[in-house]
Prior knowledge:
Chain A is of the alpha+beta class. Chain A has helices spanning 6-18, 20-56, 78-83, 122-130, 142-150, 180-183, 191-198, 218-228, 237-275, 279-290, 295-327, 355-381, 385-389; strands at residues 61-67, 70-72, 74-75, 88-101, 106-113, 137-141, 156-160, 166-175, 186-190, 204-205, 207-212, 232-236. The A-C interface holds A 3, 5-8, 10-11, 14, 17-18, 283-284, 287-297, 300, 382, 384-386, 389-390 and C 46-47, 50, 53, 55-56, 75-76, 79-80, 82-84, 86, 88, 90, 94, 96, 98-99, 103, 106-111, 113-114, 155-156, 159, 167.
Amino acid sequence: MLKINLHLIEYAINSLLRSKTKSIFITTIFTLLVFLLTSIFFISNSIKYELNSTVDSLPQIIVQNIKGGKSYDIKTNIVDDIINIPGVSDAIPRVWGYYFFENAGVNFSLVGINSYETQYKNSFNELIENYDLEEDSMIVGSGVKKLLEQNYYKNYFNFIKPDGDFKKLNIGGTFNGDTQLESNDLIIMSIENAREIFDMSKSKATDISVKVDNPIEIPMISSKIKSMYPNTRVITNSDLKVSYQNIFDYKSGIFLALFAICLFTFFIIIYDKSSGLSSEEKKEIGILKAIGWTVDDVLKEKFVEGAIVSIFAYLLGVIFAFIFVYILQAPILRNIFEGYSILRTTFELPFVLDLQTLSLVFFLSVPVYIAATIIPSWRTATLDADEVIR
Amino acid sequence: MLLSPEVLTLQILNIIFLVFVTVSLFLSIRIFFKWDINATTKEQYKLEKQSFLAATIIKYILAIKLPLFLFFIFTLDKLSISLTGAMCAAGVVDATQFGTYLFILKIINIYLFGFWLIIHNIDIKNEKLPYTKIKFGFFIFIFFIFITEVIVEYLMFDAINIDQMVSCCGTLYSSSATSLISNIFILDTKILLVLFYGLFMSLFISYKFKLQYIFSISNFLFLIISIVSLISFFGTYIYELPTHHCPFCFLQKEYYYVGYFIYTLLFIGTFFGFVASGTNPTDKNIEKYYKISIIFSFLYLVLVSAYPIIFYIKNGVWL
Amino acid sequence: MIELKNITKIYDLNINNKVTALNDINLKFNEGELIVLKGSSGSGKSTILSLVAALSKPTMGEVIVDNKRISKLPDNFASLYRRENIGFIFQKYNLIPTLSVKENILLPLVPNNPNEDECNSKLNIVLEQFNISNKKDTIVKNLSGGEQQRVAISRALINNPKIIIADEPTANLDEKLSLDFIDMLRQLKSQNKTIVVATHDPLFFNLDFVDKVIEIKNGNII
């Protein structure tokens, strides 16, 4: 039905090259727009992916004690009741929290491990086998080690307890966590040391992690726990995933709202540039019509020009974004997204290729561009030929 | 939910469409009332120029709307992850009172814009431009349907609440449901299949013997029966599950996105069927429209029939 | 064959400023004639050309070519009429300098999306007729004035039109090139083409093969 008109394409390319400055200007702006959009999406996709991987390694159900909307320490005696729920394979009280290291202005995640029990995380089991959590030592993530060294703590660290005293712990070893996010702020110590640093009594824990035999039963079991203990908050790992997704979409959404403004500007610029016809260009259209081109033919040619520019600029923008984000690791831009983390992380953005992202950027850029060129192209095509030739 | 990037993209494009379609509306009204092909006034020449603009805008909107519709379905599919209970786009469509209407409106608009373009192409081939007034009057009508779609789309996305449980396609499309859709299952499958294949035969025969009225009725019924039989019978063979009737799930990756092919073939086949039904029999293009319609409807038939047949060959029994 | 009936053409430069380019004129050209429209610039002769080519529409009156009212044709049809029936030779050639000879000549055919064979057969006819076959792939801006002139004429003739329209064709040419051009016109006349030339170059006024010389002044025929 539609035979591709190579002659027309050739003419269009030549026409674009004839008005070089205008073509280059438009292509550059378009490429810039696509580049920015794609980079932002690539970064957020990668971080989302990284975060989702983290979530998968978290416990399936977490039970927290809620008072006045905030989480407080939970009594450990409910562990036995929870284990008795059919379908629950294990319930482990966790002692963990954040410790603010003032000199560096960062938070560490402190996790207390009871060496003699099974851990809620498999990697912790490995750590216990490889390192000995003696009385006064801790194991730190590689990122933490680096940070401590930068602050002149080479072999040990002094935690400041809530009552003002110091707690000194030696650095017994360094590990690389399951994901980079973990290794950068995680410190593992014995449960007693953690309790001491957080001033938590033995009958309490930060929360309780629950393991379930059959993942399909997670929603049922969490509602059971909730009905048994109404003043708890029961979080499943799919809840976490959804909330992360929403945070990201919200953050991306804000940017998109900003981009809507950028798009509008883009539209105006393209409209303006396309409208401004030099007398040269007007004469050319006049000649085309005089030698027999119809208005539809001129419109078609203008459309082909637009298609060439937009496809070229789109591809260029995507390629540049790819290089910027995955090879150069997106300097500056990624900081916008890193507010979620507690520590300034320096992890590598994993490569995530998403067809939906690419089509999203396509729909945000190309139709807007074409829309901006409709009226200028029409004006050009309907020029009165005779007035232009005289 | 309103702020998901995909949703925002859809809304931004809708705004652009809105602006342009309003421009087209003003032009259409002007042309509808003042067009006089025999006049030699400046006014008339200006109108002739403006008719190009209106036509270009409508072409643009349709050209973007087609892939955008696929993107829309993609978006619904993605949203289904965030809505509890939804496993595919069906759940998202059902999440609000607007979902089904929006879906139908979008499809109707694609058909309407398509028809407009066909009329336009016929019109400009004739020196007298005989259908200009009619086509722009028709556009005024399309404008209101389109505006309705944009408004409903905004309302739908605004109303989606992630905390609300929605039904999965399993409950929506089962024979025990009490919705409109469940009425589909009242019909015996055998009767449906007879109708389905029978209607296609009717299409083919009326094409061969150029019986335009019979063709147009058959084409319309074929569209309806195709969708019903797809939900009720053929879909189950795509899923290889006698209870899975959802018309959206097979758009997903697990089924190789076959849904997009199925619906595209059906759309093109029936769309050109409508066009052929409405074309003047003396127009030489009518042969082309008939052919495209029959070919694509046939391809659709083959594609959906392939699933039960292959299932039977592999397993030796029907579901 | 070409008839202008009661043609009036008024240009609106702005609300208060109207220019009457042609005032109720009547003209008839027969097939195969070479007509010279004589008059100074602004006299209206260029307007007659654009009316015959359906490039503009008359304010009043009709233009009829081969019994067809081309003045009433909508834009797309007017352009098609032009493509098939008119060969336009402009004052300054108006070739596209960055394209080759071949591409310039084929320009009127581009919207038709012709296949290679059709292109080549039509191309070779005009290239040979005007002796520029060897320059087929040269970029136009690298050609001499005379060669460009021949490219311009070739382009006008690529569709083998019945009517040739030339607007001040020799205005920018020296005497030699002007005479070359007149020779080519002679050639075209022998092919039974209808030729309308608008010019104030006296070289045209006393040619033996000119059928009619029509003088236009201030929009009226003298």
